[in-house]
Amino acid sequence: MEMPHSGQLNRRPPGRQASIDRLGSHPSDECSFGSSRTYFAGATCMPHCMSTTERYLLPRRFTMRHPLLLTLFAVICAALASAPADARNGGLYVELAPSFGLFQADEVVIENGGDGGARTPPNSFVPQLKVGVNLFGYAGMELDVAAHGWDLFEQSRGGGGYVGGVARVTPLELLRFVIPDSFQLPSLMPEGPVTWHDRFFELGLYFGGGYTIVGENYAYQGGYLKYGMDLKFFITPFFAVGIDLPVRQALYAPFRFTHYADELGHCTDGGDAIGRSGGVIRPSEERSVDEEISFSDVGDCSSPAPSSILFAPAITITGIIDFGI
């Protein structure tokens, strides 16, 4: 069997060489990345200094030793080469919304009178996850979950959670029936002016509610109302960042759980707990077992429930599946 000599090993495939020659490249135009090279098929977005030949040839040292940089470069190329952001079309989306929650809950007593005495839930970090659908760019539905906690690594840890949904409308899209296509907005991506429908931002207004629970030594549960607004900026048709300003207003049952597992506790009168005998029960390390009632008898509690509002302004990161309609 005849072994190929060194000249044959270093020779480029005829088809590849011919295609490069037709593109009119010249070795003097190449940027120097090193003597060792490898093919990179399908490269359509390359550094400015690279000639046409370099669009097919990348240094092996770059591809093998810096995979993270290569991946980041490919992502940037994909974003720059993406189609215009038809962000107002109908579609599905998943959204992460990390936030810091400001909890106005002076009547929600969660501590049993031990260390520090009676206290209410503190402000804390609130992670949120949303899954929604936008119908034809005008309105849609959104499901969301959120949680907040405190002293998570201590014995006295506590927290709360929210599960619910909202109806969301995008009123800016209605203006497309008023604003003519001849009206153009400046845009960086896609480059150049775009119509109102293809704008890079969107405003959402929403209203809804769901179920909530919060507690530490004492606990409360019930419904809540959610309302607010959000603003999204579309980087590509499939990715957006923005801000969200949600308000959750709790609608607790008028009942303070002192032993959640057994569904025992007291009726509430705002921030106070009312015993079976009708007297006010102060937070204490010792449970007033004789004054407790079952949650099944919450219908007998006629005084107001404690009130609370959670305001959790968030930075949003949204992935979108565009229906194209």
Summarize the structure.
The chain is mainly beta and 325 residues long. The protein has helices at 6-10, 14-22, 60-65, 67-80, and strands at residues 37-39, 57-59, 91-96, 99-104, 124-126, 128-135, 139-150, 158-169, 201-215, 219-236, 239-252, 255-259, 264-269, 272-274, 280-281, 293-294, 309-311, 314-322. It has an 8-stranded antiparallel barrel with strand order 3-6-7-8-9-10-11-18.
Walk me through this protein's architecture.
This protein has an eight-stranded antiparallel beta barrel. Strands 12, 13, 14, 15 and 16 form a five-stranded antiparallel beta sheet that branches. It has a two-stranded antiparallel sheet with strand order 1-2. The chain is elongated. A hairpin with a 7-residue loop joins β7 and β8. The protein is built from four helices and 18 strands. Helix content is about 10%, strand content about 40%. It starts with 5 loop residues before the first helix and ends with a strand. It is mainly beta and about 325 residues long. It has two domains: about 5-80, no CATH class; about 90-255 and about 305-320, Porin. The longest helix is centred in the first third of the chain and has 14 residues, at about 65-80.
Using brief descriptors, characterize the structure shown:
325 residues; 8-stranded antiparallel β-barrel; 2 domains; 5-stranded antiparallel sheet; Porin; mainly beta
